[in-house]
Design a protein that fits this description.
The structure holds three protein chains of three kinds. By secondary structure, chain A is an alpha/beta fold. Chain A has nine helices and twelve strands. The longest helix of chain A is centred in the middle third of the chain and has 18 residues. Chain A is globular, with a radius of gyration of 19 Å. Chain C is an all-alpha fold. The chains are: A alpha/beta, B alpha/beta, C mainly alpha. Chains A and C meet through helix 2, strand 6, helix 3, helix 4 and helix 6 of A and helix 1, helix 8 and helix 9 of C.
């Protein structure tokens, strides 16, 4: 099922965050990275897609108008993963996934929860308390909660920030495999341009609340874009293994008008 | 026939006994206007506050504790010297069961009930249960009569009512009347002389409560309690229109601007004015000097003229408040009341008490 | 099969299911133990008192009332039974309200006391004490209770209205609650300043909180409130558990957070307002009860809510006993005891927190 984003506007009072943003159809079975500098509106857009922000505009999934759905119906189709699991929750890993399912109509909650854990490969953590886990493990638990609900669209808000290298890759690899296996659509806000380049099928670049560019990583990530959007002088090259790498050389000085030279 | 005759024969003495018993049944009206009746002379009395005991001391003169089966601990805590003096004469008072420490919250209703009192004596305000307290309702449910007295909120009006009612209930009307005739006489002497005094002839009085002990200077009273006494003896309480409630703090500036003619500090312990049982004159005077030496009120006229006065703080809730009334009258209208002699009154009161008031209960800065 | 995505093998699932069921069983047993402790505490509370009447005497007296003197009857029916039962009901109500507050306001410091419900109740009561109205069918004492209740409910409504304001998150709610505490306390102090002696004494007495104001009517009302509201709390429990893991997460999973919060605040106001209106300000139970319960049964609200109620009831029941026994014949105000009893137990539990769930 493809996601269509058409002329989305999000405002906080008089302050507009997202200005009339439209995207080309995002196909199922792909991982889309939302990138851009701070304040570009990436998280806001993601939250708007999740139904957590009031928005104007068109949003449809497989032809179905999402804006007309109530929260419960929307929750069956889309699932949003916040940046972190809050600390200090006195629940076990299994319990936290069960809790995610209890608010739905899942008949066999225990089985579905355990299977979600197994799918992500953390079933051995089932009895452990959330408190004792590392940041990376907690993100995997978060992910398990998400997929236990069997949504069509995964919306991940900076899933890899504050994670160490191993878990950054592991989380994104996991997402990619889920996306492939179940033909899901995953939209992830990523801070790390290289991570985005490495794992995304599709990159959407936001700048100042508007769409700056979108497309395959190789097409989108150009030195010109990086200079304009991020204010850095960078090279985009293929490494010895054929992977796209963004190599940042220096920060560009800012011209008086506020744009980068 | 025989049986009914026998019955009638028994009935008569029973009837007489019943009548005799009901002759002991007494009804009085307490300070709240409630009718309180007891079927027979109370032998087991519970006091809502320990210091209500002083009223009993005036009535059960020989053995003032004979009826007290329970009381709060406030007398021991707040006036330890007086307590010690009594304890020496009546060691058994150490064993009187406590019904609370020194506050309404600490009173145990169950303890009162367990003591099986036939009369409970409470003050309408203070540190014990009042008429709004659930304890009063519980006692009513258990059939224990409760008498409300008051030496605190309206001392001028209620001291007489309280002692009269209590005396009547305890079968001590004679003793009550003996004290009250002294009280009334001395009170009338004062209030009569200043009854219709216009404002212009009423000296301005600043009555500082617990001077030096309270956290800030200027702690005083409004219209009730000792403030009411000031008015009754022909003075004008400078705080009367300012302090909205029972007690409050007025600012130093206000006092200085009001320029009172008379300054009275109350106290009962260090570091304030030291007065009360066992205190000698010099100690009392020295403590008053320390109080008047405070820079805040040093500019006041009476203090500069060396004419400050100290008064025992606990007169604010005591049947012996006539001494406070007389002292204050003398200070406020020295010419009118030059003949008043509170010392002599104190000696007269001591005739009514097994343990007399020994010590100094008021002091002048200049003898 | 991929490196990460595996299917659950049947034996692994069995093992996990077993372990989970054992966990649930353990929790249920803990709740059962709490209930048993509570019953024991109530019996001990009934058995203690200045008159020395023992449990046997008391029970005999209940079965055969005519064998007792009027005093003994009053002690049983007007003192011991109401105080003991009121402790249980008030403790349960305050702690349950506190647990829900901590869940929906996402703040471990939330409780009826810290968010101003108690202070608002005190203000209402103080106004009614200071300015009683001449109403035929409602005595001044009844006016005080009603005023306390109304003000407590108003404070929760105010909190709810605040939460609806654009941009107001849970932090602003908590700050507003704290502001409410201070302003209500200040107004009560102002009333005290203006009060005559006997009004002043009533004001001070009311704000200190006391089980001595218990009677059977109040018990009935509070019991009814608890019995009616607890099922609704339990029904909202799964949504609240999810809410504890983040509002966005919960909303995205289909929880109607707004409605959840609204209904919860309604329950909180009824529970807290009724409890405080009947016994005055008793702090600490609503704050600590849920925390202690959480250390015992975890964050699953299906267990945490009833456990909080039980812990709160137990806490206040034990405090009631202690308040009678510390000084013979003298009552130590129960609010002081809850703090003294609660703090060391709480600290001890916190230090043992390293253990597994």
């Amino acid at each position: 099922m493809n996601l269509k984003v058409d002329g989305i506007e999000v405002a906080y009072g008089r302050r507009r965050i997202i200005h009339g943003l439209s995207l080309p159809e995002l196909p199922a079975g792909s991982l889309v990275a939302l990138v851009g500098p701070n304040g570009a509106g990436k998280s806001t857009l993601l939250r708007a897609l999740a139904g957590l922000e009031r928005m104007q505009g068109g949003l449809s999934l497989g032809g179905r108008d999402l804006t007309r759905l109530n929260a419960a119906e929307r929750a069956r189709l889309l699932a949003y993963m916040p940046q972190q699991l809050p600390p200090g929750i006195a629940l076990s890993v299994l319990e936290s996934v069960i809790a995610a399912l209890r608010v739905g109509n899942e008949p066999d909650v225990l089985r579905a929860s355990f299977e979600a854990l197994a799918r992500i490969g953390i079933e051995d953590l089932a009895e452990q308390s959330l408190d004792g886990l590392s940041g990376g493990q907690r993100q995997l638990v978060s992910l398990a909660q998400l997929i236990a609900r069997k949504p069509q669209v995964l919306l991940l808000d900076e899933p890899t920030s504050a994670l160490d290298l191993h878990y950054q890759l592991r989380v994104m690899d996991c997402v990619r495999e889920l996306v492939r296996e179940h033909q899901l659509l995953a939209v992830a806000v990523l801070h790390d341009i290289n991570l985005a380049a490495a794992c995304a099928d599709f990159i959407v670049v936001l700048h100042g609340g508007q769409l700056y560019a979108s497309g395959a990583p190789a097409a989108v990530l150009t030195p010109a874009l990086l200079a304009e959007v991020y204010g850095v002088e960078a090279r985009v090259e293929q490494c010895s293994r054929g992977r796209l790498q963004v190599l940042v050389d220096r920060a560009l000085p800012r011209v008086r008008s506020g744009r980068y030279r | 026939m025989k049986i009914s005759l026998l019955r009638r024969a028994c009935a008569l003495p029973l009837l007489l006994l019943a009548l005799a018993g009901s002759a002991h049944a007494v009804e009085v009206t307490d300070v709240l206007g409630r009718k309180v009746d007891v079927p027979a002379e109370p032998k087991r009395v519970v006091l809502g506050e320990g210091r209500l005991f002083f009223a009993l001391a005036l009535l059960d003169r020989e053995a003032p504790f004979q009826r007290v089966v329970g009381w709060q601990n406030d007398m021991r805590l707040l006036d330890p010297h007086t307590y010690e003096v009594y304890a020496q004469k009546y060691p058994a008072i150490a064993d009187i069961p406590l019904i609370g420490q020194a506050s309404e919250q600490s009173v145990s209703a169950e303890q009162i009930l367990a003591l099986k009192p036939d009369l409970a004596v409470f003050s309408i305000a203070g540190e014990g249960p009042t008429q709004h307290s659930p304890v009063a309702d519980l006692l009513a449910a258990a059939g224990v009569p409760v008498l409300f007295i008051d030496f605190r909120v309206h001392p001028i009006k209620n001291t007489r009512v309280s002692l009269e009612a209590l005396g009547k209930l305890l079968g001590r009307e004679r003793e009550a009347q003996e004290y009250l005739s002294l009280y009334d006489r001395h009170l009338a002497r004062v209030t009569g002389a200043v009854a219709d005094l216009p404002d212009a002839q009423r000296p301005k009085v600043f009555l500082e409560l617990l001077a030096g002990v309270w956290q800030a200077p200027g702690h005083t009273t409004g219209k009730s309690g000792l403030g009411g006494v000031v008015e009754a003896v022909g003075g004008r309480n400078i705080a009367a229109g300012v302090v909205p409630g029972a007690i409050g703090d007025v600012s130093v500036e206000y006092v200085l601007t009001a320029d009172p003619d008379v300054y009275i500090a109350t106290g009962n312990r260090n570091p304030g004015v030291l007065l009360g049982a066992g205190v000698d004159e010099q100690t009392a005077r020295d403590s008053l000097t320390k109080i008047t030496a405070r820079p805040e009120f040093a500019p006041l006229r009476p203090i500069r003229a060396g004419q400050a006065h100290g008064l025992w703080h606990d007169f604010y809730n005591s049947p012996f408040n006539i001494l406070a009334i007389e002292s204050m009258a003398r200070w406020i209208h020295p010419e009118r009341f030059a003949d008043l002699d509170p010392q002599a009154t104190q000696a007269e009161i001591n005739r009514f008490l097994a343990v007399g008031l020994d010590g100094h209960y008021w002091i002048d800065a200049t003898p | 099969m991929s490196a990460y995505l595996q299917s659950a093998g049947a034996p692994a699932l069995e093992a996990a299911a077993l372990s989970y069921r054992r966990l649930l069983l353990r929790r249920s047993v803990l709740v059962g133990v709490l209930l048993a402790l509570l019953v024991a505490s109530v019996l001990a509370d009934l058995a203690s008192g200045a008159s020395g009447m023992g449990l046997g005497q008391l029970l005999a007296g209940i079965l055969d009332p005519d064998a007792l003197s009027a005093t003994e009857r009053v002690i049983i029916w007007n003192v011991r039974l109401p105080y003991a039962l009121m402790a249980v009901l008030v403790g349960a109500a305050l702690s349950l309200a506190g647990a829900e507050m901590q869940a929906i306001l996402d703040n471990p410091l939330a409780s009826p006391f810290t968010l101003g419900v108690s202070s608002a109740a005190a203000l209402g009561a103080s106004l009614a004490i200071a300015y009683p109205l001449a109403i035929d069918w409602l005595a001044p004492s009844g006016q005080v209770t009603v005023a306390a209740f109304v003000f407590a409910c108003l404070s929760v409504l105010l909190l709810q209205a605040m939460s609806r304001l654009r941009g107001a998150g849970v932090e602003s709610l908590v700050l507003f609650g704290i502001a409410l505490v201070f302003s209500c306390n200040a107004l009560v102090s102002l009333l005290q300043l203006l009060a005559t002696e006997d009004v002043l004494q009533q004001l001070v007495f009311w704000t200190l909180g006391s089980l001595a104001r218990a009677n059977w009517e109040k018990l009935g009302i509070l019991a009814a409130v608890l019995v009616v509201l607890l099922p609704f709390s339990l029904r909202a429990a799964p949504g609240m558990t999810l809410l504890r893991m983040g509002e966005d997460r919960a909303r995205s999973f289909g929880v109607d957070v707004r409605r959840l919060r609204y209904a919860s605040l309604l329950r909180i106001s009824l529970l807290a307002a009724t409890a405080v209106a009947f016994v005055g300000t008793i702090g600490f139970v609503g704050l600590v009860g849920p925390h202690m319960a959480r250390l015992l049964v975890g964050e699953d609200q299906r267990f945490l809510l009833p456990a909080s109620a039980l812990v709160g009831a137990l806490l206040l029941s034990l405090s009631s006993i202690a308040s009678k026994l510390i000084l013979p014949g003298v009552i130590v105000p129960v609010g002081i005891v809850t703090a003294l009893v609660g703090v060391p137990v709480f600290v001890a539990l916190v230090f043992r927190r390293g253990r597994r769930l």
